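Service request form, structural biology core

Requester: graduate student, group of Dr. S.
Request type: structure prediction, single chain
Budget code: on file
Notes: please return the result as structure tokens.

Sequence provided:
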Amino acid sequence: MTSNLCLVCHHNASKTLYPGILKCTECGYVYADMTLTDEELFALYNEAFFTGAEFDDYAGDEVFFRKNFRLRIRELKKFIDPARHKDLLEIGSAYGFFLDEVRSEFDSVQGIDITEAGVRHAREQFHLDVVEGDFLSHDYGAQKFDVVCLWDTIEHVRSPHLYVEKIAHHTEPGALLAITTADIDSVNGRVRGRRWRMIHPPTHLHYFSRETLTRLLESYGFEVVYNHYCGFYRSIGQMAYNVLVLRQQKPRLFRVIQKAGIEKLGLYLNLYDIMFVIARRL
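Core staff response, request fulfilled:
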């Protein structure tokens, strides 16, 4: 049993769940057994992350990301009061597809990301207000946001509790926080175990459940008002790349799919293991 201070419940003991993956013995929060410096973590998210390391062609799948974001916006709007929720921040804004989709719904939209290529794309292609930098060290001064979004981001950062703490500092009561991330206690997560597609440190460092994410948010003054599983549109090319190249190391089979010309076809999948959480600042 390893002694590690849990960032959710502050218990100081954990056990090995899978090789390289620990689980808090008190609250069940799961995390990668590794320590990365900021420099090591940020280095993972260079341009290659979006063009071979994690995605085959992130920008080339723009149409599918936009479809996904329209689904998220549709649910988020159920909790939006246009008179109250006017200024939005996206943490981990990547290439700016979400901000471009949602900009007409708010007085202002801003983004922040550590990836230079993504920030450049968002600025040059969509003329968005996006900064390159680390959210924890970026100085927002006294600025407050009404909606903050982290789409498939919280599992990547080194200290998610510090992110939630800072978000609380830059929001007022009634503000909304929207998060998508994997649920390790989902049926698929439990059945697949260590072979679950979402377990791949060092890019995924944190594995929340509904209970542990709710507990983390509540500890910083947020009340969860929505928590449902959500599906995603994906291109056949990206799905094949994940399976054949990243997991099975069979690039020749992937090239067969590319030559067949079907990689840009897509479909919608919901494996009921990705949770979409909306929380309101108390």
